[in-house]
Write a structure and sequence with these properties.
- Two copies of one chain form a homodimer.
- In chain A, a hairpin with a 5-residue loop joins strand 15 and strand 16 (441-445).
- The two termini of chain A are 51 Å apart.
- Chain A is elongated, with a radius of gyration of 29 Å.
- In chain A, the strands form three sheets. In chain A, strands 1-5-6-11-10-9-7-8 form an eight-stranded mixed β-sheet. A five-stranded mixed β-sheet of chain A has the order 13-12-14-15-16.
- Chain A is 41% helix and 18% strand.
- By secondary structure, chain A is α+β, with helices and mostly antiparallel strands.
- Chain A has three domains: 13-46 and 94-171 and 311-362, BirA Bifunctional Protein, domain 2, CATH 3.30.930.10; 180-303, BirA Bifunctional Protein, domain 2; 363-456, Rossmann fold, CATH 3.40.50.
- In chain A, helix 6 (151-168) packs across helix 11 (262-280) and helix 7 packs antiparallel against helix 11 (262-280).
- Chains A and B meet through helix 1, strand 1, strand 2, strand 3 and strand 4 of A and helix 1, strand 1, strand 2, strand 3 and strand 4 of B.
Chain lengths: 457, 457
C-alpha cells in the first residue's frame, strides 16, 4: 500500500498531553462546581436520528449538520423521484447539547425527578467554515435545570459562574437581560414584531449616537410614535433601582404611546427578584443589567445571560437563558428550563492569555529512574511500584541507555526528579534522587517511602 | 411541526446519572493508574479522513466504517462513471483508537519524545449489527508505549492491569502468549503459513481430544510430519520453566521434523524475560503462559495479553500485545510498540455482577434544603453556598412546595440529609438537619460549618 502523509479533517484538532492537562483542568473545575449544586452528569450518543435534529436550528443550522451515510448499501432501493440525501442518510452528528437534552428528557421522563438538574460535557460537530477559533468539532459544556420556573434556578447559574471563574482565577462580569422586558419595549413601541431591531438599536446608542439610531429605526419601518418610545427607553439612566422604576412607569402606560405591557412588567418582576437573590447569595463577580443583551433572542423567554472576562478581550465566554417550551416539539409541553453553556475553547484562550494555568499541569511525571544496566533495572522496579502505590507518577527508563539520552527524555517531559543508581546503591539498599532544578541530591533507604515522598513534594 | 416520539439510533445509548457515576468511577480508576506510570492522555478527532481509516481493518472492517456525507452539496460535480460513495464521503468516524494513534504519532513525531507513552479514552463507532453487549458507539480505553522494544514495557502493562483491577476489587487472571513462539511452532511443523490453525488446535485439545485435533490438522492440509510435531507441542506439560526448556529443545532442532526456529527461540527469550520481570515486580494477580491465546494474530508480533475476571463469566475484559510496524503505513517505519485496551462495558458488567461499585456512587447530593416560604429560601441560600465552598453537594429546593413533594424529591435522588427551617431557626440563626436513614436530627449554628460537615460525614 502506498505511504500516506497523515492529516486530519480541516476544522478538527488533536490534543496532546499539555492541551489535555489544561482542558481537563477546566472541565474538572467546572464539573466540581456543578456537582456541589446537585447537577447530574449525563451523556447522549454522538449520532442522533436526523428527525430529532432537523428543523431545530433554522435553515442555516440544517445545512451545517454532518450527515452519516446509512450503513450497508446506502443506495439500495432508493426512489429516484425523491430527494436522494434523506434516503441515504438517516443519522447526523450532534450539533449542540440542547436538542439532545430535550430529546433525553422526553424519552426518559418517567425515570426523571423534576426539577431535573443536568450537566453534559461532550463534543459537538458543525460543518461551519473553519477559521481562527472556529472548529468543526468542539466541546460544549452545558448546565440546565428543567421543570421549575423559580428564579432560584437563575441565581444558582449565576452562583456557579461566579464559583467556576473564581476557582480559575478569571475576573468576569456577568450581564443579565430579560426577554420579557425586550418584548415589553416592542409592545409599548407599537412594534411587537420588531424586538430584535429595537434591541440592536439600544445596543448601538454609545457607538453611533441617538440621531443615527432613530434614522435606523425609521429604516426598519418603526413608526414615529414607536421611535418616540424608543427614545424614552434609550434615555433610561441611573441606578438599577432607578432604571427599574422608570421602566415600570413606561410599561404601566407612561410611555409616549400610552400602551401598557403586562409582559414587560412580568420581566421587570423577574429581574428584580433575581437581583435580590444575587445580593443575598453574596456573588463576588460584578453583575449588571444589560438591556442590549440580545443573545438567542428567538429562543429565550425570560432571563438572558452573558459572561465576559474583564482582563482579556475575547467576547462572551459563557452564556444562556430561560426557555419555556424546549421539550414541546418532542411531545412534552409546558416544561420551563434555564441553562448556561461554558465556552471551553475561549476559556482556554483566556487562561493562556492571562497565564493562569497552574504550573503543576506542565509536569506529567514526577520521578524518572534512569537505568544503567539490567541489574539496576530490576533493582528499581519494586521501588517504582511502591511509589506509584502512593500516587506518585514514576517512570522507569525501559532499557539501559546513555545517561545523556535519559536526561534529555526527562527534560523534554518536564520531569523534575531523576534517580540514578549503581552497584553502590544496590549494595547499600538505597536510591539516589536528584532535584533537577535545584540540583539537590540525596540518598534514601529504598524502602523509606515517607522520606522519599517528602523530598519529592 | 408534528410532534415526534423521540428515539436514538439503534446500537447507541444514553447514559443517565447513575451509569455516568459508575462509568466515571471505572475511567477515573484506570486513568489514575495510567498516570502513576507516566502515561500521557491524548485525544484525536471523532472524524478522520477515510484515507486514514480504509484498508486498516480488513475488508469487513471497511464495511463497518460510518461514513460522513461531505458538507455543502455532496453530489455537486460527481463523476457518474466512478463509484459514488468515495466521491460523496471523504470522512469517517473513528473505528478504533489504534489507527488514529498511529496517525497521531507520525503526524506529530517531531514534538514527541520517544518512548512515547500515551493513553486515550474516547468513543469509537462501528456499523456492526447491534446485539446484547455489542454497540455501535462504545468507549475504548487504550494504553500504548511506542518506540521501545524492552520487555519492561510489557511488564508495566501487566503491572497496570494488576493495579487497576486491584483498585476495582476484581480478581483477574492474566494470560500471556508470544506470537514468535506460535510462529516457531508453525515453522518446525513445516507449515509456516498455518500459524492460526496450529494455535486453534492447541486450544482445542482439552475439548475434543488428541485424535480429533490430529484429524482437523490433516483436514487443514498439514502433512503427517507436521502433525507429529504438533503432537509434541500438545504434549508439553509441567511448570513454566519445564515447558520453556522443552520448547527450547524443540526449537533447537529436537522436534520430529528436525527443523530449527530462530523466531521461536527469540519468543521464548522474550517470555522468559517478561516472566522474570513480573516476579521482580511482585504482581498480585495470577499470570500464566497460555500457548492457545491467539488474539489479534495477524497484527501482533511479540507478547499477546488477555485478562479474564476469575469470579464472573464474561470473556476477556482486557487485551493487547506488541506490534512492530504500526506507523509504517503512515511513513514512519521501524517503531515497535506494545499496548492493551480495557473493555469498559464488560468491566462495568463485572462490577455490577459482583456488586463491587462503591455505595457512595449512588448518592448525587448530600443535603437538600427544603423550602417552606420565600423568607426561609433567602435564609438558607448563604448557608448552602458556604457548604458548597467546602465541597459538599447541596441543593436548595427552588420554590416553596409541599413537604411531601420535597421529601419525595430527596428520596428519588437518594439524598441522605434534609434540612427544614422555619421562623424558629431563622430567629435563632440555626439550621436543623436530619439524617434520613438514621432519623437523627440536630440543630447547628448556621455559620458553624465544621460542626455541620462533621454531621454530614
Amino acid at each position: 500500500m502506498a505511504i500516506q502523509k497523515p492529516s486530519i479533517p480541516k476544522g478538527t484538532r488533536d490534543f496532546g498531553q499539555k492541551e489535555m492537562a489544561r482542558r481537563n483542568y477546566i472541565f474538572d473545575t467546572i464539573r466540581s462546581v456543578f456537582r456541589t449544586y446537585g447537577y447530574q452528569q449525563i451523556e447522549t450518543p454522538a449520532m442522533e436520528n436526523l428527525s430529532t435534529l432537523l428543523g431545530k436550528y433554522g435553515e442555516e443550522g440544517d445545512k451545517l449538520l454532518f450527515r452519516i451515510l446509512n450503513s450497508g448499501d446506502a443506495f439500495a432501493g432508493i426512489d429516484p423521484d425523491k430527494p436522494v440525501v434523506p434516503q441515504i442518510c438517516e443519522k447526523g452528528l450532534r450539533y449542540d447539547l440542547t436538542v439532545p437534552f430535550a430529546r433525553y428528557v422526553v424519552q426518559h421522563q418517567s425515570d426523571i425527578s423534576f426539577p431535573f438538574k443536568r450537566f453534559q460535557i461532550q463534543p459537538v460537530w458543525r460543518a461551519d467554515r473553519p477559521q481562527k477559533g472556529r472548529y468543526r468539532e468542539f466541546y460544549q459544556c452545558d448546565v440546565d435545570v428543567i421543570g421549575s420556573t423559580s428564579q432560584v434556578n437563575e441565581l444558582e447559574l449565576v452562583e456557579m459562574v461566579d464559583a467556576v471563574f473564581g476557582k480559575l482565577g478569571v475576573r468576569v462580569g456577568i450581564h443579565i437581560n430579560n426577554r420579557k422586558v425586550l418584548t415589553g419595549f416592542a409592545e409599548i413601541a407599537g412594534a411587537p414584531d420588531k424586538v430584535v431591531d429595537i434591541t440592536v438599536a439600544i445596543d448601538k446608542l454609545d457607538k453611533i449616537g441617538l440621531e443615527k439610531v432613530k434614522e435606523e429605526m425609521a429604516d426598519k419601518g418603526i413608526a414615529a410614535g414607536g421611535i418616540a418610545v424608543i427614545e424614552q427607553i434609550l434615555s433610561l439612566s441611573g441606578s438599577f433601582q432607578e432604571k427599574l422604576a422608570a421602566m415600570r412607569a413606561l410599561f404601566e402606560g407612561g410611555s409616549a404611546s400610552g400602551i401598557c405591557s403586562e409582559t414587560g412588567l412580568k420581566g421587570l418582576a423577574e429581574l428584580e427578584e433575581l437581583f435580590g437573590l444575587i445580593e443575598t447569595a453574596l456573588v463576588q463577580a460584578p453583575v449588571e443589567m444589560d438591556l442590549s443583551l440580545a443573545r438567542g433572542l428567538n429562543y429565550y423567554t425570560g432571563a438572558i445571560f452573558e459572561v465576559k472576562a474583564l482582563d482579556w478581550e475575547i467576547g462572551s465566554i459563557c452564556g444562556g437563558g430561560r426557555y419555556d417550551n424546549l421539550t414541546g416539539i418532542f411531545g412534552l409541553p409546558g416544561l420551563s428550563g434555564v441553562g448556561i453553556s461554558f465556552g471551553a475553547d475561549r476559556i482556554y484562550d483566556v487562561l493562556v492569555g492571562l497565564d493562569l494555568f497552574p504550573a503543576s499541569l506542565a509536569e506529567s511525571t514526577t520521578l524518572l529512574f534512569a537505568v544503567m544496566g539490567a541489574d539496576e533495572l530490576r533493582y528499581v522496579i519494586p521501588v517504582a511500584k511502591a511509589l506509584r502505590e502512593q500516587g506518585v507518577a514514576v517512570e522507569v527508563y525501559p532499557e539501559p541507555a546513555k545517561l545523556k539520552k535519559q536526561f534529555d527524555y526527562a527534560d523534554k517531559k518536564n520531569i523534575p526528579f531523576i534517580s540514578i543508581n549503581g552497584s553502590t546503591e544496590m549494595e547499600a539498599g538505597t536510591v539516589n534522587i536528584k532535584n533537577l532544578s535545584s540540583g539537590e541530591q540525596k540518598a534514601f533507604s529504598a524502602t523509606d517511602m515517607a522520606a522519599i515522598l517528602a523530598f519529592l513534594n
